[in-house]
Amino acid sequence: MTATETREDAEVKRAPAPLRLWRGSTLLRHLFWSALGLLAFYFLSISLDAFDNLQLAQICYMAIATAGLTVLSGLSGQISLGHGAFVAVGAYSAALLLEHLQWPLWTVLIAATVITGLLGALVGVAAARLRGPYLAGATLALAVGLPSLADYHGLRDVLGGANGLIVTPQPPPLSLGESFPLERWQAWIGGLCLVIVLFLLANLARSRLGRNMRFVREDEDAAALSGVHVARTQVLAFCVSAGCAGLAGGLFAMVNNLAAPGAFTLTLSLSLLTAAVLGGLGSLAGAVYGAVLVTLLPNWSTNFAQSAQLPQAIQSNIPLVLYGLVLILVIVLFPGGIQSGVRRLARLLRPSRRPTTTVMERR
């Protein structure tokens, strides 16, 4: 053991080969957690009724879009207030492909991801020249203007105008049985897509591109001097993030059987950003926590207001009040988001270890 080697380093070297492989392979750990996540999702979905499975599917596409926004804002440091526009592009792409070309569902979802990712690359080229509030303002204009194109005179016949496009539900495979619930099948598709996206993004964050994104986020000048192509890195971050939003849009059209401008207002973009901040900006697990809160909290607050038999004028405002209270509580108690609170709790519950000392310190 060298003078600078710690006791933990020596323990790792003396550990069996499978344990050394586990500790040294990020890909292996991500595969393990992905398989565990799929298994947990399966048991959760079969224990829920049709309505709860529908909500589970909604959480999945919200979590996918939030995870993409987490990569853009948390990892790369670019602020976007217009991710709802990318979700709209994915939803309309999926709706058009399903209704006019009758492509298989998985092909449609991949195509929606690619189409929206390419659009994100184009937006990223322009965004790479903007910083701070200018970038936020540009993406905000995108969120407001892009969905309204569906009601444009030249595109009204293709995109359905203000009423949007109706998407025919894709039935479950006959191998699952004729009585298999459609909502559970949609939840399974959403859950599989979510796990795949989290797996890919987790590996991206640990890759060279992910390190470059963090470097650009911290100091663009230092990153450029170190040989990192700043503009290319920012464009790739926009492309990846938009692709995730496009996949979420395709799942949105599949689950809700609709792609309409009214579903992709500025509120959606702000909800995605709120979910990312609540869960912990830069944390993929936090993206899931935030998506759960943003999806379920309005329904919970509405049910609470109705069960309390409050006047109608108060019932309509209860969801907004509770939404604001939860947002304030999370920010005050966990400034780094819910995931930071989970990590803090894990450190408190973890058994304390004796501090490691080097050979030179013991001498």
From TrEMBL:
InterPro entries: ABC_transp_permease, LivM-like
Family matches, as Pfam families: BPD_transp_2
A cellular component term, taken from the record's GO annotations: plasma membrane
Single GO MF descriptor: branched-chain amino acid transmembrane transporter activity
Leader sequence residues: none
Keywords on record: Cell membrane, Membrane, Transmembrane, Transmembrane helix
Domain of life per record: Bacteria
Transmembrane segments: 30-48, 54-72, 79-98, 104-127, 134-150, 185-205, 235-255, 275-297, 318-338
UniProt topology in membrane: Multi-pass membrane protein
Cellular localisation: Cell membrane
PANTHER family from the UniProt entry: HIGH-AFFINITY BRANCHED-CHAIN AMINO ACID TRANSPORT PROTEIN BRAE (PTHR30482:SF10), HIGH-AFFINITY BRANCHED-CHAIN AMINO ACID TRANSPORT SYSTEM PERMEASE (PTHR30482)
The protein's name in its UniProt record: Branched-chain amino acid ABC transporter permease
Organism the protein comes from: Amycolatopsis acidicola
